[in-house]
Amino acid sequence: MPNDQPNTEEREMGFLDHLEELRVRILVAVMSVLIISIIAAFFADFLVKDVLLGPLLAVGLKAQVLTPYGIMLTYMQVVIVVGIIGAMPVILYELWKFVSPGLMPNERKYAFWIVFFTSLCFLSGISFAYFILVPTALKFFSTFGTDVFQLNIAINEYISFMLSLILGSGLVFELPMIAYFLTKIGILNPKFMRKYRRHAIVVILIISAIVTPTPDMLTQSLLAAPMIILYELSIFISMFAQKKSAKESA
Questions:
Q1: What is the pTM of this model?
Q2: What are φ and ψ of residue 153, in 5° steps?
Q3: Which SS3 state, helix, strand or coil, does residue 152 take?
Q4: Residue 81, CB half-sphere, CA atoms under 13 Å: how many?
Q5: DSSP helix, strand, coil percent of the chain (3-state; round to 5)
Q6: pLDDT (tens digit, 9 = 90+) per residue, 79-122?
Q7: N or C: which end of the chain has fewer CB within 10 A?
């Protein structure tokens, strides 16, 4: 009698193949981060002094180093984060290629556009944090200086504050693409998002409080406001994805 069940070796090889593919794609992503980080190391002075310290100096504040190894750790942190940001399109592409075998053939052909718009959303979030969120927060903090206390900021604390807001904002701006992808695979729909809008706002406020490294309401509100707008935008994107899926399956 023929055995209709696949043998254990075939199942194991299929599983091992997936693990091997995952390993290769992680390796490519890590190598891309490493290469961008090495390139960024040659521009470390410019990235730290002009790019990251620019918003701080613009409001009349100064940064100081409190430990002998503070500058070295700061430069290393900046170089690695720049490597992650610069390699984000590659990371997203490798992630998409890993999950694409589980999608329909007509959905796989959109790999370029999905990676493009996902990267665009991430860079939009970074731009929002750098040009709006960080300067507004620093300007607010600078008003608390007095004649008795001089407001100088530890460089490592400032860089951590800056990078946390930038990366957090970049990830938050991925909400529309997440809504699109979850709708395409049938996990999310616009009716569900409209029904639980109030719950989503509460979650957004919690996320903004977690992502922002400072407890002030101004910074948290500045991040929560675009998140709420992005949630409303995600409802329309979910509607578009749902209608497109229905048309393709018809």
A1: 0.78
A2: -115, 135
A3: strand
A4: 22
A5: 80, 0, 20
A6: 999 999 999 989 988 887 777 666 666 666 666 777 888 889 99
A7: N
